[in-house]
């Protein structure tokens, strides 16, 4: 195992659906990227519990995978703007936190306010849902900070002295791990240790889009604009050096009770962020958000439309140093996907009437899936990639699965619009495709399935007769998309 201070990803890659280098994609926004509104209705925050698989950045990765392009989204960022991490394990089950956390007094960095640990009983453990061999995390240093420890698979803690003579922000790397299942525990060694704003575990042997879902609840565009280390997002860009920044800060600036940012100030803020991205060579993907209810500070639906028209026509063309920029117009995509009937582009009123809004600000899963798919397609175009028309196919036969039992257990069909994720566990034989094991983490990214059921995540069966059905679905094994054909006997 080796430890490096920073190892940036470089380059893009050729066509044919293949990347030759890792591409870091920073999806920076508010609760709409965190996935609020896509939860399963349980837990402390019903709108957040289990929401991560349905959030737009993860759906973006699913879209890339379904089109035969490698993508990894095993990145943890704060889902809340307060550093408390109290709901992390509800947001995604592969996070376990112990002890209470205090918020850092520092400005939020990539992933929000970092958790402050003052006792060794406080820890955060992340177990990625796929095989990995490398860990990266954001580490801040400042005077009067303590020491942070990182344990890999319960081993001896690697210590990071955060008590710096000068403020700083670093990307720490632990690499050289065997490719497989690992867990990473972050804990206090001494003093006032500060946990990571993001945790990124990945398979370094597969060039892929490395997606950082940095959607943080309650944040505004102003969170980006500080320039002082150790934790300013704008300053941290110099260290993370993403290849693409996906920008979608808007609703908390323009909603009633929000930051109350004026039209002209919003234009200024976008210019600052775009041109900062230009200085580090990052491409920018601007997401025009879905319409909301309850604007404030002089904003309304019509003003929001005018703002983005103005931005695209009159502002962005004057920005300097931008390598490339692209637009994902969510209201237009929602119309094209049929979610708003004849209303073009989609408005909040019609989306709500059609049952696609969770509340006045946040959309349900179908909207988030359309948004994520649009972002994935935009990345394919931005990098000149050609989506693969076919990916490797493996077959397994004679799986036994009771459709009647799954239906009785409350399973419901889900289609491509939801793109649920999970490990197929209806029969152990499925996990041994291509000589693999359960640790190979096959993951559904498109096709149909029944979920959940007493037997685990199981496929939605269609088109068969006589009790025998054939399922073809895109799965991901070690972050590489594959087509799997399964014959299931019921």
From TrEMBL:
GO terms of molecular function: hydrolase activity, acting on ester bonds
InterPro entries in the record: SGNH_hydro_sf
Protein's name in the database: Uncharacterized protein
Source species: Hwanghaeella grinnelliae
